[in-house]
Design a protein that fits this description.
Elements lengths: L37 H15 L4 E12 L5 E6 L4 E6 L1 H4 L11 E11 L4 E11 L2 H17 L17 E6 L4 H10 L6 E6 L7 H14 L9 E6 L13 H9 L4 E5 L7 H5 L2 E3 L2 H4 L1
Parallel strand pairs: 3-5, 6-7, 6-8, 8-9, 9-10
Antiparallel strand pairs: 1-2, 1-4, 2-3, 4-5
Helix pairs in contact: 5-6
Length: 290
């Protein structure tokens, strides 16, 4: 092709796509021509809100009001300087929640948004309520300690005696825990002691209910399982957060109510949990407990 050949343009670059006639815009439901019922609006508001927020929504704020109904559901007003929102935590979740809020506490709630049409109310359905910050956690444990002490749960007079020569011992701990191996090293040389393991979770969100349920189950079925001379509740060392299950009210009350002597060995020498305080015998480590 010679230098003076005409330039060939791509004709498509100079043409615009043909405009398609747009479909007539439908009027949304709720307009003048197509009114919604109130219940339709409430259902749609609930749908839109749930679609727009995560199922695991987290909110931080101050407790403005807190009440527990006769059915065991917790109702809380969560607020900050500019707004407030109503929350509810149902009995099944509240009974397993390791923290009980009080007015003025700063908390973090985890749950999902809900618009309750019958009451015309926006709220958060909570799965969990936690204190906000390490200082708040310590304050919550201190309040619980005072409450339990006033009920006499730490009194020496209510504690059971461990038999001098126990022959049947149930170890309540995780099968994977180093604490189990530490205890077995001490106990295995004594063939007269029959050992059984009740496996539980000792760390994380499920730990408190796992341990509390185990203690309660052993107590309730102690006749059917044969005589149990002692329960050995053990867990190795860890951070304060790792050991939080043993400061849980449900765990502490299960130990206090148990009619089998409970020996605890939780954490390191310097760790003392509320479970240790209410146990019939408190050792500083799993080895010492064994």
């Amino acid at each position: 092709m010679s230098d003076d050949a005409p330039t060939v343009w791509d004709v498509r670059a100079n043409l615009t796509a043909p405009r398609r006639p747009s479909a007539p815009k439908a009027k949304p439901a709720g307009s003048d021509d197509e009114p919604w019922s109130v219940s339709q609006f409430a259902d749609e508001a609930d749908r839109v809100l749930k679609a727009g927020f995560a199922d695991d929504l987290r909110l931080r704020g101050e407790v403005g009001e807190w009440t527990v109904s006769t059915a065991g559901h917790g109702y809380m007003t969560l607020k900050d300087a500019k707004a407030r929102v109503q929350t509810v935590i149902y009995q099944s979740k509240l009974s397993r929640n390791r923290f009980r809020p009080e007015v003025g506490d700063e908390v973090i709630v985890r749950g999902r948004v809900n618009f309750y049409g019958r009451g015309g109310q926006l709220s958060i359905i909570c799965d969990r309520i936690d204190p906000a910050g390490e200082g708040a956690i310590e304050a919550a444990i201190r309040r619980l300690r005072e409450k339990l002490a006033n009920e006499g749960l730490f009194d020496a007079s209510r504690k059971l005696a461990v038999p001098r020569f126990p022959s049947r011992v149930v170890l309540v701990t995780s099968p994977q825990a180093d604490a189990l191996q530490d205890a077995l090293k001490v106990l295995r040389p004594f063939p007269s002691v029959r050992l059984a393991l009740y496996p539980v979770t000792v760390q994380g969100d499920a730990a408190a209910s796992s341990v509390a349920d185990a203690i309660a189950h052993l107590d309730a079925t102690r006749g059917g399982t044969g005589r149990i001379d002692a329960i050995l509740l053990i867990r190795g060392g860890g951070s304060r957060e790792d050991l939080r299950a043993f400061d849980d009210e449900a765990v502490v009350r299960a130990i206090a109510a148990c009619r089998i002597p409970v020996v605890t060995g939780i954490g390191h020498d310097t760790d003392v949990s509320l479970s240790d305080g209410v146990a019939d015998v408190h050792a500083h480590t799993p080895t010492q407990a064994a």
